[in-house]
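go over my protein:
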Amino acid sequence: MMTHRTPQPRGHKRTAVSIEITVNGVLNHVDGRITDLSEGGARIDGVSLPARSRCEIHYGGAVVYAVVMWSEFDRMGVRFPYELTHGPLFNALERARGAAMLDPARIFLSNRPSGFGRRGLS
């Protein structure tokens, strides 16, 4: 009897980032860029390893282990067997989330001189 598995929603919020990394596969080191990151995994552009292979992600002097879940010509998605909870990559994720929380309108208003019109007349 065949059982039907329903896809489970992602357990972590994905965040758009741009983080330069080095991926260590079995035979080589390749530079790439993480463009989508969460505590549970990442999308890496510029690198393509076979699905189900294991790799190491080197960033900020630390190593994060990953398993390739899907792979296309010049990008791949990886899952972290150990959830990100600390280290340089986790800190980069937290910084990106903090930056995304800033309301662009508030940034614009805080840089405007007080007053009326372009010349700041009162």
